[in-house]
Amino acid sequence: MMRTRLIAGNWKMHKTVAEAVEFVNDFRQAMPSSTAIDILLAPPFVSLFAIHQTMTANDRFTLAGQNLHWEKEGAFTGEISGPMLKALGCTFVLVGHSERRQLFGESNADVNNKVNAALEHGLGPIVCIGETLEERDAGKTQAIVKDQLLKGLSGLSAEKVSKITIAYEPVWAIGTGRAATIEQAEEVHTFIRATLTSEWGREVQDVRILYGGSVGPQNAEALFGCAEIDGALIGKACLDPATFAKICSLAVSAST
Length: 256
Ligand code: PEP
Fold this sequence. Notes:
By secondary structure, this protein is of the alpha/beta class. The protein is built from 11 helices and 8 strands.
């Protein structure tokens, strides 16, 4: 069985609308045209409309939100809902990114609510999990990752879990330039796959597990060479169109 690799760029809080449109125009020129991989851009909410306006059926990338609220509408000042993202052409949404968890207090219960809302509104949740350095040093990596997985996906049927993407992002590797080694990533990805299968069975065997944390052109080829790694969630290296396109091309090479 082959899972299509997914390369997702998380812009975080970067680029104005004009800069976002410029990025997309440049990226279109530089990106691989192959259908062998899926490519996702997750710009700030305020740029989704403008980017979506420029898109055509020929585009080989789709859009994702960086977050969503679990209610579809209501008195939630400053929040954005699943139907709003869907209406702007989003196909996926990040849920539980470590910055959301650490800086904005998101709990596994919040993640669970958001995953349910995303699925209800036809968005593929990309559920981010990963341990801190302190937890890794204390030998708790598997326990933390399992807890985040089981609580974040609590109560979901196998059919629903089969529509989810997992991003394993060790917190100590995000934005630090210190990526996990291939062996470290492979070990946790294998553990995540085993946990998913033991909880939900064979129906979830095609769930994609992405690696995130200081991925760049320098280590992408080696990461994509690993059968357990179904793609990458990329922060810093996705902000430059040529660099992000290069990583996408490396994923195509590993997939063809
Ligand atoms: C991220 O924030 O999801 C991420 C992986 O960031 P970076 O690539 O900058 O480490």
